[in-house]
Design goal:
The protein is built from 11 helices and 15 strands. The protein is α/β, with parallel strands linked by helices. The protein folds into 2 domains: about 130 residues, Aspartate Aminotransferase, domain 1; about 240 residues, Type I PLP-dependent aspartate aminotransferase-like (Major domain) (Aspartate Aminotransferase, domain 2, 3-Layer(aba) Sandwich), CATH 3.40.640.10. It has a 7-stranded mixed sheet, sandwiched between helices.
């Protein structure tokens, strides 16, 4: 029996999403930009219905939703697009957090080579932003603030409304990567004061390969497109919109909107059940940012005296991830956890658990048993073969 507990990395497509997409791969295959014939118009109507469903999930208007390939592209378009449109006429400072997704951090750093000033703020050990620190950074005129709604490793929820108010007082645009928040917690981009927001379908039981960028219309936010083409998506994102994926994205958003509260309550109960069982069998187990608000499905756990990667290898029937980002050359400690003040050893001992819509109580119990068995095997082996002091 294999158990999938990595729902922050990706989620399975909801069966209703798959059913909604299937006709658009065959029977209704028209190009949504071919308005001259019925097949194209049908595809276009379906794409626009999906756009409305995406917008409804986050409190936006349909015409404020720009389809992209995913949150990475959306983040790049938001940050680089805002900066390049402003050019030399406005502030050059862009402020973000050390715990942001790599695509946000790299986008900000890329702009430094174009003459912009990147400012990467630290976070508290809780993973939360100190708003006074942000206010101090914004004393210098700032073009854009980018703060993630929910952290993809720790599940910590930032106070977007509070951040937005600080940004508003400073006259800065406010962007948020809401990929881990949309469909899991209530989002209202208007009420929360967002100018730009990035979403990815595969984080909320939709298909991979499609996402969206919310671009506020009033007051209007202006962006420069990342690449040239036919001017689709209001001139901001050229290329044929993949109608099957858009339809699936819209269906996933519709489902999330309808059952978000029920999902969250059930998933939170499973999270507590899993944590309680693991604590019984793994002495010294703790949570990172334990007192911070977090989404229902996330557990950021820290093992005592054991590397998380070793535990994952010892329990191959349980799909989990570590707090480490792997490259082809090395395994580096999680930039999120080290930014929160954890040592490299503590980061290496950290495990990310993601419970989702299709996780069952039996899954949780089986995963707990497998992980505890693996933990005991590893710690028994370590006791039998202690590492020499000089090592």
């Amino acid at each position: 029996m294999s158990v999938y507990l990595d729902n922050q990395a990706t989620t399975p497509c909801d069966p209703s999403v798959v059913a909604a997409m299937l006709p658009y791969f065959g029977e209704w295959f028209g190009n949504p930009h071919s308005a001259e014939h019925a097949a194209g118009r049908r595809a276009a109507e379906s794409v626009e219905a999906a756009r409305a469903d995406v917008a409804a999930l986050i409190g936006a208007q349909a015409r404020e939703i720009v389809f992209t390939s995913g949150a990475t592209e959306s983040n790049n378009l938001a940050i680089k697009g805002a900066a390049r449109f402003a050019g030399a006429t406005g502030p050059r400072r862009i402020v973000t957090l050390a715990t942001e997704h790599k695509c946000v951090l790299e986008s900000v750093r890329d702009l430094a080579r174009e003459g912009f000033e990147p400012v990467v703020l630290p976070v508290e050990p809780s993973g939360l932003l100190d708003h006074e620190r942000l206010r101090h950074a914004l004393r210098t005129p700032t073009l854009l603030v980018s703060v993630m709604a929910v952290n993809n490793e720790t599940g910590v929820i930032q106070d977007l409304g509070g951040v937005a108010e600080v940004a508003r007082q400073a006259g800065a645009l406010f962007h948020s990567d809401i990929a881990q928040a949309a469909g899991k917690i209530a989002m209202d981009v208007q009420a929360q004061g967002l100018h730009l927001a990035s979403i990815s379908a595969h984080k909320l039981y939709g298909p991979k390969g499609i996402g969206a960028l919310y671009v506020r219309r009033r007051p209007r936010v202006r962006l420069a497109p990342l690449f040239s083409g036919g001017g689709q998506e209001r001139g901001l994102r050229s290329g044929t919109v993949p109608a099957p994926l858009a339809v699936g994205f819209g269906e996933a958003c519709r489902i999330a909107r309808a059952q978000m509260a029920v999902d969250a309550a059930r998933i939170a109960a499973l999270r507590e059940r899993l944590f309680a069982r693991l604590c019984q069998g793994m002495p010294g187990l703790s949570q990172n940012a334990a007192l911070s608000p977090r989404i229902a499905g996330n557990l950021s756990l820290r093992l005592a005296g054991l590397r998380a990667a070793d535990l994952i290898r010892a329990a191959p029937d349980v799909a989990l991830s570590t707090g480490s980002a792997c490259t082809s050359a090395e395994v580096a400690p999680s930039h999120v956890l080290t930014a929160m003040g954890l040592s490299r050893a503590e980061a290496d001992a950290s495990l990310r658990v993601g419970i989702g819509r299709f996780t069952s109580a039996a899954d949780v119990d089986h995963a707990a048993a497998q992980l505890i068995q693996a933990y005991r095997g590893l710690t028994a082996g370590a006791s039998a073969h202690p590492v020499p002091a000089e090592a």
